Amino acid sequence: MSIFDTPSQILTTAPLWIQTPVVLIVAVPLCAALALGWLRLIDVLGARLLRAKRWAEAKVMKHTDE
User: Which of 7, 19, 23, 26 has the largest CB neighbor count within 10 A?
Assistant: First the structure.
């Protein structure tokens, strides 16, 4: 038996009007936290890619000026 068996059995046998708020109370904050994490990751990767692109462009411009 896993740690999820008892809570899942209780939630499965509960009426729908109890299941819905319980799932939403767990799912909404969890999804919000995951979304913030994804946004942070995308921002960091975008900034690094932009920095690398600008560095490469500056290096090309430096060689063409000489």
Answer: 19
Q: Return the residue matching tokens 């729908």.
A: 16
Residues in Cβ contact with 66 at an 8 Å cutoff, skipping those fewer than 6 apart: none
Domain boundaries, the chain: 4-65
- Name the H helices within 1-66: 5-13, 16-65
Report how far residue 17's alpha carbon sits from residue 10's, in angstroms, rounded to the nearest whole number.
14
Per residue of the chain (66 residues), give pLDDT as tens: 688 888 889 889 999 999 999 989 999 999 999 999 999 999 999 999 999 999 988 887 777 766
